[in-house]
Each structure stands twice: as C-alpha cells, then as structure tokens.
Design brief:
alpha/beta, 2 domains, Urease, subunit C, domain 1, TIM Barrel, 8-stranded parallel sheet, 8-stranded mixed sheet
Length: about 425
Amino acid sequence: MILIENVKFLVGENLKEGNILIDGNKIVAIGDAKDKSDFVIDAKDLVAIPGLFNCHTHSAMTLFRGYAEDMPLQEWLEKKIWPAEMRLNEKVVYLASKLACVEMLKTGTVFFNDMYFFPSATARAVEETGIRACLSSAFFDFFNSEILEANMKRVEKELKELKNFEVLRAIAPHAVYTVSIEGLKRSVEIAEKENVFIHFHLAETEKEVVEFKKKHGKGIVKALDEIDFLSPRLFCAHSVWLDKEEIALLGKRGVNAIHCPTSNMKLSVGKVMNFPEMRKSGVNVLLGTDGAASNNSLNMFNEMKFCALLQKFYYGAESFRAFEAFRISTENAGRAFRINSGRIEEGWLADLVLLDLKQVHFAPCHDLIANLVYANSTVDTVIVDGKIVVENRYFEGEEKLLEEFSKEVERFFT
C-alpha cells in the first residue's frame, strides 16, 4: 500500500487537500484516509493530478528528433522520414521507444497511443518502464493489392504477438493518401474480429482532402462512413481540414479526434482543429504530441499549453478554457480507451502524478489549472498502476538507457 499524506489534489476542477491511499493498483480512499502502508509519501509541497494521456504519437521517432527540420509535411515524409524508416530494425525501435517511454513518464504521461512499426519491440519497452499503452500494427499499401495482402498477414501476426503483453491493441492504416479503400475496409474487418481499436491520420492537410475528393468524387469522412469505418473504436489524429457536416458525422458515430497542435504548427498544415464545432457536435476530443520528429518533445504539459493558445489565437480568447486542455488529456482519454483512469476518485486506477509546487516558475498560484497548462510544471513523482515509476524526478536506469540509445543512433546514421 502507498499513502500519500498532506497532499493537494484535483478532483475535476476543484482543489482539495488530504491523503490518498493506494492499495494494489487502485485508489481506495481519499480525504482523511490513513492505514498501515508499505510506503508513505509526505506531499505537503506537492499537488496530485491524474496522469496524462498522449493520444497520438510514434514513440520510436525519438530516433529522428531534429533530423528533418523546417520542411512541409509531404517533403518531410518523402525526402527524409520514409527513406530513413526503410532501415529500421527491432533493436533501434526498442531503444528509441524505451527512451520515449522514460521521457513521457518524467513529464507526467502515464499512457500513450502509438502508431509505428515493430510494435512488439515497443511493447517490451512499455513493460520494462511501467507505462500504459495502446500499441498498433501500422501499415501502408500504396494502392497495390500485393502490398496490401503482404501487410495484412504481417498485421495479423503482430496483433497476435501483442497479446503476449499487457497493452491495448490497435490496427493502424496510415492515411487515405497511403492506404486504399480496400485496405481501410480490411482494417475494419480485422478490428472487429480482434476487438481492437483503429488508429488513423485524418484530414491533416488541405492537399489530402482536395486530392481525395478529386479521385473519389466525395469527401473523406463520407467515404469512410460508407465503409463503416467511423465508430467509437476509431482514433483520428489531426482532423484539421473538416467542415461542419463532417464534424457532425464524427460526433454522430462516436469517433475520437486527436488534436496535435505543435506538430500541426511545425509542419504548417495551414489550419487548426475546429474545437468549438467538435464540442458542439459531441466529438470526444483528445490530445497528442505526434512523434518527436515533428514535435521534438513528448511533453504533454507543453502540448496542453500550445493547444489552448492555438485555439484562443484562432477562435478568440473566450473560446477555450485551460481546464478543457487538462480534461482532454486525462478524463476524456480514459473514457475513450475504456479504462478507469484520468480522475482521482475512489475505485479508479492509481495513475497519479505529483508536481512540485515550490518552484519559482509556479509562483504565485492564483489558479492551479492555469498554472498547470500555461506555466512550466515540474514532475516529482509518477505512479502508474499503483507502482512508483518516477521518484524525485528520476527514472531508475535512465543513464544506462541514454548511453545505449546514443550508441545505436550513431550506428543507425553512419
């Protein structure tokens, strides 16, 4: 058992103070709770928040942090990223993913939704670091039936392998400009057969939307609906170039849309997710960093800030509240992945982050949520599934990992 004593903690938007008692992997009591505990944390200068969810990333792309800079998306993909990815192997993906897991944990993320290759290598990293994850088998078919068939065999094999790990699973057709309609149909069939999620890039650029309509005579969302692709199991990253009717249809079908503001700004996609319309249509909006190649950081506190600022810049100062950035990074995400995480409540999973309040950049604290979103939060302790994985800002073994990773990066790019 873990007892967190004298701690301030967030329940929704309300700040409370007292103790939090953890037994096994659950919060069993809050308030005046006390018990004979194996471990006691004196948290008088700390605040507890629910752990954050990074709902769209490519964790092993830490390998490409700073590798392809100041380029538009298509050029970035075709000239730098895709050619480098052709040389990926299981070892480098494992080390790059493990580095990403540690980076996320040390910045308060307890769960990430990943789309990449060699998912079992990432699953090993997940289990060794203690973070939660939904891992996907990603594929492209480039409108070639032979490539599609080869990838379907690989996808089914990888999804089967992921059953050996304590992770959620997904199938990840990349996007409509890299995967055929037949490939998308097959994704739905596999997702339903295996009862897994679907992870997908949607309407990231105007070019993607215009070219699809030219080719198919209809918009992407309508075409996806016609093949039963839209459902609560679907997670759509970006979702930027959508009109009101398309957003309404996403809401009607229970789709989850993932805002990736930093990546969208850095790759200059030319628009911002229409969060006010998403809210109005009942779309469950989540937040993600995208990969470190298009963000350079996997820090969800940074992402919450950029999310709020970009929405305010585009739609007006009153269009978006700081708490909304916090909610889409916690409670909304837990609901989307069907797990009781994202709130500090009795009976919920013990996925908690303790932040250090005694920092000059956090003072004064007129509004805790505003400080969480707009100031630079300092993570002291991270608890995932009832286990302490970061303590006093330190992840055990991080120096050795960094050394191994650095050597592998040198080999990869030589």
